[in-house]
Each structure stands twice: as C-alpha cells, then as structure tokens.
Amino acid sequence: MSKKNLYALCFLFFATFMTLPQSFAQNIPRGINLTGKERIWERQSFEAKEIIQDIQVLRDNGFGSIRLPIAFDQYLNKDKNFLRELKQVVQYTESNEIVLILAYFDHGLDNNNAQRQAKSITRNWRKVLKNIESDSKNLYIELVNEPNINPSVWEDIAPKIIKGVHKENRKIPIIVGGTNFNSLFELSRTKPFDFQNIIYTFHYYEPYIFTHQGTEWTGKQNATLGIPYPFQQNKMPNLSVKAKGTEGEINHRDYALTGNKTAVIDKISQISTWAKNNQVQLWCTEYGASHNAAKDSRIAYLRDVEEVLSTYKIPGFVWEWEGNFGIRELLNK
C-alpha cells in the first residue's frame, strides 16, 4: 500500500478526531500509545533515535499526540543512559509541537506497600522532571498506570505523589485515573483532588468480552472467539466451554445489550457528566480491541468509540500502534 493510500485509510478510520477538543491552552490532536518500553520482561534498551523514528511514523499517519508507557523503575535502575535518552525524546516532541504523555508503568503498587511505593514513585518522577526543562509546553505525565488498589488507599497516596511532583515542577500537567485499572466507574465515584493542572483519565475496553476475546492473560472468561461488533445474532459464536461458570458466561448472555454504540454512549456519557459537574478535564488514555477480533469488527468498534469520545470532546489515545492490539495491521492489510 502506498503512503498516500495508507494515510487516506487512516483518515477514514479516525476522521472524527480532526475536530480537536480543547485542553488547557492548547488543542490535543489524535492520540495513540507507542508501546514497547513498558514491557520490562523484554529488557529493551531505551534509545531516543528509535523512539523518535517511531514517532515520526505515527505523525506521518496523522497522530499528533503520543502516550509513551515506560517501565520507569527498570530504566532508572538499570540504564545509566535513560535520562539522557528520554530528554532527547522530549526535546524532539517539544520542537515539533507533538503532545507527549509519559506514563508510569511497573509501579508495583498494592494495598500493603502503597505508602512505601508512593515515596519511590515520587522520587522517580522528581528525577525525571529534574532532567527535563521546566517550561515544556507539550509534555504531560500520567502519575501511574491503572492503579489496582483500594480506592481509599489510592485517594490517600495520590495527593502525596502529586505534592512531591509539584516540588520539582508545579506547572507540569498531571494525569490521574481511578482504581480498578483506571475504571471510569471508579473515577465517577471519586472526588477530584484539590490541585491545579490535573487531568482525569479512564481506560475504555467495554465490552471486555469483545475487546479482549482470546487473550490468554485475562483468563477463561474471554476464551470465546469470533464475537462480532456490533452484536449480530446470526454471527454470534457459542460460548466456549472454557468460559462456562465464569463472568464470560454472563457477558456472552448480555452481549446483545452491551455490544453496540448505544452502550458506548451510555457509559462514556456518564463519566463526561461527572467531569462537567466537577469542572475538570477528562481524557481517555487507552481504548482498543485485540487483534483476535475480526478486522471489520475492530474497525467498527474503534470508529464508534472515537465518534463518542469526539462528541463529548474527550481526547482519546488508541492502544496501540503495534502489538496485541496494534492498529498498524488494520492499515496494512
């Protein structure tokens, strides 16, 4: 496929984001996750040249906002060149007016170590920010990715981390999500923190039985393959025998109600109402569907989520360019 045709196809998939929502003093273009540097088990080196080349490819495909998941503990502890390489990436995105989110993965938070880990996360963020110019205009940090701890614990330690970050850089916009893996439902039960320059985030993978079908790491509940989007009775597969007795059985039964755009609107409208009522900024820093789903279904799902996010003026970041949920394969097939 030629570069011209590739861009045209990308435009058709993601055209709804050409009307840019407002965030603080700037517009936020279409966003995507540039994954790979969060996978600590692969022990990849962090090389600015490689990351910048990937960002250039994304920009050529119409993405002007990049979320960069990073295993900060891994690189800060084991890669002596990490801060220097990261600074080069930030300098590139700044000079090219590309929005960049640095997202803290591998934080290791749990209910038992929360206070200790919060101090470690704070130290690491301060190291990172000390290394980067404080007047960055297009840089955001996501405090931690998908905290999965008791909400009361998270609401106790998150302000402590934010205060620590502010000691290094009071102006840096900080992105914060709710517990239960950045659940929009948990976020909707949260009272906003009393800080300036806070953006709230949620991750959207509903309905899970479609977006995570066949993913081994989510267990037997999502073992059923061939689930279409939107729901079509004549195309629905039988429930996998592996999913019987799990939540997947209930999700399969209810898919006629959850597997459509109306359900997407219902859920996202609720968190949008929460944001408006609390007068806070709201982003969706992850949404997507596994490549185990059929290509046409994935395209239909991404388009619906994008259109709904655009309707509610919520900037969105597709998960991901390459990988198990990679959209690059949608454009190249």
From TrEMBL:
Its EC number is 3.2.1.-. It comes from Belliella marina. It is an enzyme of class 3 (hydrolase). Belongs to the glycosyl hydrolase 5 (cellulase A) family. Residues 1-25 form the signal peptide. It comes from the Bacteria. GO terms for molecular function: hydrolase activity, acting on glycosyl bonds. InterPro entries: GH, Glyco_hydro_5, Glyco_hydro_5_CS, Glycosyl_hydrolase_5. This is Glycoside hydrolase family 5 protein. Coiled coil: none annotated. Residues 32-323 form the Glycoside hydrolase family domain. The keyword Lyase does not apply. Keywords: Carbohydrate metabolism, Cellulose degradation, Glycosidase, Hydrolase, Polysaccharide degradation, Signal.
